Each structure stands twice: as C-alpha cells, then as structure tokens.
Amino acid sequence: MPELAKGMENYVNNDVKAIRPSAIRDFDMKISSIPGLVKLTLGEPDFNVPEHVKEAAVQGIRDNDSHYGPAAGKLELRKAVAKYLADTRNVDYNPEDEILITNGGTEALTAITFSLLNPGDKVLVPTPVFSLYFPIITLTGAECIQVDTSDDGFVLTPEKLQSEIDKHGDVKMILLNYPCNPTGRAYPEDLLRRLGKILHDNNILIVADEMYSELTYDQEHFSLATIYPEQTLLVSGLSKSHAMTGWRLGYIAGSAPLIGEIYKMHGFMVTCVNDIAQDAAVEALNNGREDPVAFRKEYQKRRDFVVDRMEKMGFDIATPDGAFYVFAKIPAQFGKDDFNFALDLAKKAKVGVIPGSAFGAGGEGYIRISYAASDEKLQKAMDQIKQYLDTLD
C-alpha cells in the first residue's frame, strides 16, 4: 500500500482541510459496527422504487441509452419537470433554459453556491438544518450566518428574519429547507408569504430546498417560487418522493440568467447526469404522481407512533409536519451533550440516531431519529430506548 511521499503532507487545499467530513455520515460510521444496532440514522427511504419507474430504466438500457446526454439534462425530462412544477407550484418555467437536471439535490445546492457566491457575501441559513449547507457556503468564501430557530418551534419567524437582516446588513442569499431536515417542520402559506415579502423587499435571493415537498402531512405544500419566481431558485428531486436516493436525480428551476451561470459550474462538476436515471425520472414525473401518496400515508402513521412513544417517555418534540424525522430533546441529566447521549444510546440501547449538534445552531441537546424504517424496527427501537431510560432513572 503506497505511503504519501515525504513532504507532501500539506499538498492540499487549506479551506478543504479546515472543514470536517459530514457529521451525519461520520457519526453513522462510528456506531455502525455495534452488533445488533437498530439504525435510525440516515435519511434513506425504506421503500422500493415503484415498478413502472424501474421498468422505464430497464427499457432505457435495452435501447442502449448509454451515451453522453445534454449537460442541462434531457429535454424530455426538463419538460416533465416544467409540467410538474406548473401543476404543483403554478409557475411557468421554460424547459429550454430555466430548468437544470442535477446529480441529486446535493450537487444542485453545491453548483448554486459555487456559481453565485463571492467571498464576503452574506448567506442566511435557518438552523437546525442539513449540515451540507455550511461547508458549501464557507468554501466559496461567503459568510454563513446561522439563524437559530429553536426558540420558535424550529421555524423562521418574520420578526427574526427582519432582525437578522437589520443586524447583518447587505444579505445576498437565504437557504430555506421546507419541510426541514432534521426537524420535519414545514411552513404554511401565510407564513411563507410574510417571509417572502421581507426577502423580496430586501432583494435577497431565495434558494428553496423542497426535496421533501411530496411528504407533508397536515398541510398542503406551498412554495416561495409560486409568489416570487423571479428571485427564487427551487431545488428538488426524486430521492424522497420516489425512494430514488441512489439514482441521484435532482433539479433546479429558476430564471434563465441564474440557471445559465449554474449550468457552467454543473458541467464542470459532473458533465451530465446518468442517462438511465433520467429515463426513470421522466416516467416518475409523467406517470408516477400518485406514487408518493402511499409512502406519505405510511410515514405519517410511523410519525404518529414514534412521537406518541417518545413523548410518553418524556422527550420534548416539535411534531414534524413533513419529511421523515423526529427531532427530540435529550433527557435533562445529559445537559446538551447530544453526542455522548447518542453514543451511549447506541452502545447500551443498541439504537442508532444522529446528534442534533450536527445540524448547526439550535441543534445542540437534541437527537434526530429517522422513521423511514419498518414498523418492526421502530417498535424495537422505541422499546429499547424506554428500557435504556428506565435504567437511567
């Protein structure tokens, strides 16, 4: 096994060296070798891709659809995305130059930040939130301003938004994830309209991460792109709605001048998205609109079960409106040391969760539990957590 040549230890990008790997993946790897662990760590749907979607991919293979595609994505797929967004968001995007197919939502967000941010730009990020946001902002040289929402039920209020704008001055962008990973909180239309008005009046670019939009339970999903399409970049995909996480299929919709710049960065990063995944996505969007309904019903049942069991154990929870996560406050005797609580839970209760501090300001003292798992796993996990808490008492 080759050892790095002497003197090359520092032949790395200093900015990359300064950041840590994904705290979610890092903790998951740390505990995964524990025998008998019930893993509720990663945001991975436990359902299979719908059969008709898989068949479309198989047909693409049979048709030898194995060549470089357009960097922006197949036009057929961009048309399907445009039709879907017109039907669900009432926004008219031109598939020719206002939609970009990406290698999942992760690449979409990275391409956006590296294309549009300059050193010194200020970006608001309501937290707790998916930890990817922090490095993709800081690596551009921009300033990531974490806005702690924990005192407001894990939603950004208009008052706090205005306060942060007044405090920091010239803010360029906001990254808003709804429904939110890790809290599951969503934003009702009236609140989004109030937030949108402030963002519009201050000329702030909105990056709306709506990857979980098909998984809302107690309210209809509403998008900032519906009211302010001219200053919103809508990011979504099929990872959660159709259980296609491994297919890496995402998209960005927005005004042509911005999409044109993001297109360049996207091309440098990935050239183009997998042809076969795009074949499957066309089928999912054109003929699979009802596929997420069955998933959503099952997730809602699981949410209700987990929230009920955990509240009875004494956990403080802001009931999730969507996605498939519960964000729970850890027992008082652990203070805010969510890392050691999650580690202890894994070792003694054999249940794997993610420490809330991985998700930024306001996450400390909480754990994230993914209920994208079978009823049997969730039942077992809840029983084992209760037994663990009983031993603490």
UniProtKB/TrEMBL annotation:
Keywords: Aminotransferase, Pyridoxal phosphate, Transferase
Gene Ontology molecular functions: transaminase activity
Transferase listed as a keyword: yes
PROSITE patterns the record matches: AA_TRANSFER_CLASS_1
Top-level taxon of origin: Bacteria
Coiled-coil features, chain-numbered ranges: none
Aminotransferase class I/classII large domain mapped to chain residues: 37-385
Keyword Transferase: yes
EC numbers: 2.6.1.-
Cofactor: pyridoxal 5'-phosphate
Family under the similarity heading: Belongs to the class-I pyridoxal-phosphate-dependent aminotransferase family.
Protein name listed in UniProt: Aminotransferase
